Amino acid sequence: MATQAQPDISWDGIDYPYVPPAQLRIHESLELQTDADAHVDPITHEVLRHALWNVNTEHGNTIMKISGSPICAYGHDFNPSILDENGDFVFFGPFLQYLSAAAGAAVKWTLENRSENPGIEDGDIFLTNDPWVGSTHQSDVAVMAPVFWEGKLFCWVVNTLHQWDLGGTAPGGFNPIAQDIYWETPCIPPVKIVERGRMRRDIEEYYLRSSRVPQLVALDLRAEITGCTIARERIVGLIERYGVGTVKATMRKLQDDSEGAFVRRLASIPDGTWTEESWLEVSLPGDRGIYRNRVTLTKKGDRLIFSNEGSAPQEGTLNGVLAAWKGAVVSMLASQMLYDQMFVIEGALRHCDFDVEPGLINCATRPAAVSGAPALILIQSIGLGGLVISKMLSTSTDEAMRSEVQSCMGVLCYPIVAIQGVDQRGAGYSSFLLDPVGSALPALSWRDGQDTGGWPWDLQSTMPNVEDNELFYPFLYLWRKELPDSGGAGKFRGGNSAELALVPHKTDVINLFTITSELAVPGPGLFGGYPSSTNKYALYKGAKVQEQIAPSGRMPTDPSELGGEVDWVPAKSFDRAPTPDDVFVCAWAAASGYGDPLDREPQRVADDVAAGRVTAAWGEQAYGVVLAGDGSVDTTATKARREALRQARLDEGTPWDGPEEGQ
Amino acid sequence: MSGIRLTEYLHAIDGEIRCSRCDHVLGPADRNFKLGALVRELPLSEGNPTLRDPAIYTDSTVVLRQFICPGCGTMLETEIAVDGAPPQWDIRVG
Amino acid sequence: MSYYCGVDIGGTFTDCVLVDDGGTITLAKVSSTPQDFSQGFLDAIAEAATQRGLDPSEVFPQIELLLHGTTVGTNVLVQMRGAKTGLITTRGHRDALIMMRSYGRSAGLPIEKLLHVSRHRKPDPIVPPELIKEVSERVDWAGDVFLPLNEEEARQAVTELVAEGVEGIAISFLWGFVNSDHERRVKEIVKELAPDLFVSCAHELIAKPGEYERTAAAAINCYIGPSTSRYVQRLDGATRERGYRQPLLIMQAAGGVVPAAEVAEAPLFTIGSGPVGGVIGAKFLADVLGHENVIACDMGGTSFDVGLLHGGQPIASSETVINQYTFYMPRLLIESIGSGGGSIVWVDEQSQTLRVGPESAGADPGPACYGRGGDRPTITDANVLLGRYNPDNFLGGRITLDRDAAERALRSVSEPLGMDPVEAAAGAVRIVEYQMADLMRQMTVEQGLDPRHFVVYAYGGAGAAHAAVFARELGCSEVVVPLGDLASTWSALGVMSSDVLHVYEHAELVSSPFAAARLNEIFSGLEDRAREQLRAEGFTDDSIELSRQADMKFSLQIHQVDVPVPSGVLTDADMQQQIETFIERYEAIYGKGSAFTGAGVQAGVFRVIGRGTIRTPALPRLEPTGRVDPVGVRDVYWESDGFRRTDIYDGAALGPGAELIGPAVVEMSVTTIVVQPGQSARVDDYGSFVITV
Question: Do both A194 and A57 map to the same domain?
Answer without folding.
Answer: yes
